[in-house]
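A further point concerns the way the authors explain their paired sequence and structure data. Since the whole study asks how a given chain folds, the encoding of that fold should be made plain. A single example would do more here than another paragraph of explanation. An entry of this sort, consisting of the sequence and the corresponding backbone structure tokens, reads as follows:

_____
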Amino acid sequence: MIHYETKIGLEIHIQINTKSKLFCNCSTQFGNIPNKNICVICTSQPGTIPMLNRKAVEAIVKTGLALKCKINKQSFFSRKQYFYPDSPKNYQITQFNPPLCSDGIIKININNKEKNIHIKRIHLEEDAGKLIHEIGSTKLHYSLLDLNRAGIGLMEFVTEPDFNSSEEVLIFLSKLKNIVEYLETSECNMEEGKMRCDVNISIKKIGDKNLGQKVEIKNINSMSNIKYSIINEIKRQEVILNANKKVIQETRGLKSKNCETKSMRSKENTLDYRYFVEPDLVPFNLKNKFIKKISKQIPELPMLRKKRFMSEYKLSEYDANYLTSKKTIADYYEEVLNFIYNTNKSVNISKLTANWISTELMSKLNLSNISILKSPITSENFAKLILLISNSTISGKIAKIIFEEMYISNKSPETIIKEKNIEYISDESTLEKLCENTIIENKNIVKDFISGKKNALTAIIGCVMKKSKGQANPKIVNEILIKKLKNYIT
């Protein structure tokens, strides 16, 4: 049986987070009616002149610096010539050589071993429009053109062929997405096409020095599609080589939900895009002052924040990983803790807070398909709920009832407690009577306690809690029961 080695390189297009397009003032807002966000510049009307968006340059430099890239201060744009129906110019304004950023690196962890993924270049370019393919009532095929996306600024990341599996690719893309979201240079929303990936795959016999023939799979916009496209393409190439045939250099696209691909065009010869310097945009020279200013804007990145969460809040690696997986979740967590510590500096409930956010809150938000930024429960109200749990004002069971109401009504936990009269019973005389009656009613459990059975105390506490409908303060109940039950031991 022949064994093969896989080599994978990526070209990742990430939409830059600016309010206007790369070369005009048209909005970049997603979801508007087709062809609303257009003007004479982004539709390439004769005589129009593009104007470079400064914010887009700042965003790509910020991203490059965060990834340890070399910033090429002297830069210019080129025209990349090709015809496609969703590109009104019949060329794309992009960067050829040099790119704005080059020679970056991202470290990923594979089976507890660190691996360097080299980013060859990050360059700035404009996006194309979108074709919507339809079948009419007469079964004639036709296409509709929406140019809302045409001219939006993109960062294109080109990696070296450093990947050997779909697993490595997904780990890298998740990490890149997380870093870019922390930088706030893109939202990276794959469902809205704000992050798309071209995958270049080749396989070769283990031991061969030369790389195999490369096949490109274009415009994949979900992690699962990327995973299964790679797996299927590797299998397809193995079948071809095992039959003593040659893999054809080509571009393929997804054709079905199970990530099978179809040939779009062959690439027997390298395409001649006939790059030349864009005549309507002057070259620009980035000053050291500009680059230093951008470098100061780089926030605490995910790995550093994860390490700080583990050391400062004593969280497990699992909890710290989850909380820092999105900047918005990490921000919310720290907002909650800041409110708690400003209220009571002596408490240490970082773990309790992490548990409630990762389980109760995020489960609810995910089911509702809502971002934590739009959470119905503010960080302040969430902190108040955690404090009520930690100081035993309410039980975990009651806390869940209050939480559900908070999620629906946006009310504070104190308001809900008053409205529903569900606060803990902490009056000792009331609890003593409750414990005495429970002991009288549960003589068998008392016998178990006397005989030394470990679970007996827990069982009788449960009976008290049930009798009080969950409102008895368990801490005080525990103290009272231990005192009273000791009297039965001779």
Remarks:
- Residues 223-242 form the longest helix (20 residues).
- The chain has three domains: 4-289, 302-411, 428-486.
- The longest strand covers residues 113-126.
- The chain is about 40% helix and 20% strand.
